[in-house]
Structure prediction request, 455 residues.
Amino acid sequence: MSLPGMVTAALSDLVLRIPGTALGVLIGVVALVLAVVAAGTGQQTEHQIADPPTTESGGVLTVDVVLDEMRVRPDTVEVPEGTRLVLRVTNREAMVHDLQLDSGERTPRLRRGQTALLDVGPVYTDREAWCAVAGHRAAGMTMSIRVQGAHHHAPETDASDVPGVLDLAADPSPGWVARDAALEPATGSVHRIELRAVNRELEVAPGRQEQRWTFAGSAPGPTLRGRVGDRFEITLINDTEMGHGIDFHAGALAPDGPMRTIDPGERLVYRFTAHRAGAWLYHCSTMPMSQHIANGMYGAVIIDPPGLPEVDREYALVSAQLYLGEPGGQEQVDKINADQPDGWMFNGMAAQYDHAPLRAHTGERVRIWVVNAGPGGSTAFHVVGGQFDTVYREGAWVLGPDARSGGAQVLDLAPAQGGFVELSFPEAGHYPFVDHDMRHAEGGAHGVIEVTDRP
Prediction:
């Protein structure tokens, strides 16, 4: 056994023999001694999981608890009524965790190998505990503390906590500005970008604002563009209170280092060379990824196919599901896991391009890039009244520039897939664009291209 382990075992035995208020003082001494010993030996404080000792009612029960693989182990502890319970909590994975009681007390945020004591106090009724890092409770990091022999009831759901439905016919909030979907040409061969992970209140539907987790304060994050052979150097800075990471599908490299989760206040530099053309997704790499993506941490990287001709206008649209509610909250996560979004959207807001149409002139050639961020569900991009004469999907020309008479009506994309279509408009008018899964279109995945005659 390591020196910290021997110290812990000795002090734990002593804890079992000290009643009353003296325990609180001892707990502080235990934590201090463990920290000093760990620092002196260069080791993290770690413990093996032991079977919980039995104790008489009114005594002290110390239980080893491990945080690992997004779970709390054991997930249920039974305690004789009136027994003082002390949890010795150790984090065994790279992701930061803590453990919080339903009364509000909690451990510090623990890195891998770190241990803290959590004094539950005398237990007379059933209690609950969970990891308080956003989204981790809903992902399954929970613990139940049960009084032995008591009858247990499932907790009731408060219907008032369920977010309301979207009103897609509402007006946007005062001062709202649509995301500019215009895509600028690629410039230079080395791209250095700083992305800060920040929490931000954003308009997710007309008149509806919600807290989102973001890259650079927007959802989706900035659209990056380059050519085959270009070098990208992205500096990720975590300005939030939880861990985040990043994964660029446009690069091919071992994920161990660059895709690791960084703690609040930390930064990492992610470097890759764009070896292949395509419309690529980037997203937060921290588990549970479904929550981080659903709450806004995604974006697109456009790598031009060699010889891509110029067009009159280019737009970039990132489609995604919309989940309302507190980011990482139980109601929201239940909907994510059930694949039951509250709506669908392009570029982070349902129906936004109804209120700020994309624009084109008759006869102009328009290229529209589309990436499906998900986190689930397909996208069937369609322009009502338009026909695509060029379709590029997942690095391949589905309908190439040399096609003589063929046309296409839909660009179909699974989650994380991307591509582009090209078309021109024969006459002035308003051309809706939609996700042609009509459930998605009617749930917010629609907008308008306003076409006017050439001046």
Notes: The chain has a mean pLDDT of 86. The radius of gyration is 27 Å.
